[in-house]
Design a protein that fits this description.
By secondary structure, the chain is of the alpha+beta class. The protein has a single domain, classed as Muramoyl-pentapeptide Carboxypeptidase, domain 2. Helix content is about 25%, strand content about 15%. The chain has a five-stranded mixed sheet with strand order 2-4-5-7-6, with helices on one face. Strand 6 and strand 7 form a beta hairpin. Helix 2 crosses helix 4. The two termini are about 30 Å apart.
Length: about 190
């Protein structure tokens, strides 16, 4: 992974994924759109790993639905201002791996486009959203482990607090990418 890698557009027709960028809608934990336009972007190495994850999910009859990928630092600041909790939101000074283009938030969907039950919703900032939260039904645990296995096999790692969040190992060594001024991703 290098700092000179470029951001790649992730699209349903080129990547065989469903895209539902919730931060371009009011259906996120802030209750308001943060992005004016819904462009799904990942740094080249993350995009390559995503392609592997797509193939692995396909091998068991499933697809990926992406909720968020690259996030400009200004959007990260909006999230931090709304919920200043480092358990769920990276502080701007530390930088989010979303703002490095190496993190993706997603879930698994079946052949009918229905999401597998993960026990909590995307961006539900509660203890039950932890990957290995005890007491969840077996089918939820199985679904989370299936997503975890697919994403790890593709080259991603996870964070403990969010079943939906995956990132490339070593991402912190990369600089934050400020694509908000020149790129297609605009803030509200």
């Amino acid at each position: 992974m290098t700092a000179t890698s470029r951001l790649v557009h992730i699209m349903p027709d080129t990547h065989r994924v469903e895209i539902d960028l919730v931060y371009a809608t009011p259906r996120n934990f802030t209750g308001k759109p943060i992005y004016r336009e819904a462009h799904c972007l990942l740094l080249e190495p993350a995009e390559s790993a995503l392609r592997k994850a797509v193939d692995l999910a396909d091998s068991v009859g499933l697809r990926l639905r992406i909720f968020d990928a690259y996030r400009p630092p200004q959007a990260q600041q909006v999230l931090w201002d709304f919920l200043p909790d480092p358990t769920y939101i990276a502080e701007l000074g530390r930088g989010s791996n979303h703002s490095r283009g190496t993190a993706v938030d997603l879930t698994l969907i079946d052949g009918d486009g229905e999401p597998l039950d993960m026990g909590t919703g995307f961006d539900e900032m509660v203890k039950a959203s932890e990957h290995f939260h005890p007491g969840l039904p077996q089918d939820v645990q199985r679904n989370r482990l299936l997503l975890l296995g697919i994403m790890h096999a593709a080259g991603f790692t996870h964070i403990a607090s969010e079943w939906w969040h995956y990132e490339l190992p070593g991402s912190r060594a990369l600089p934050v990418i400020d694509n908000s001024e020149s790129g297609p991703l605009k803030l509200m």
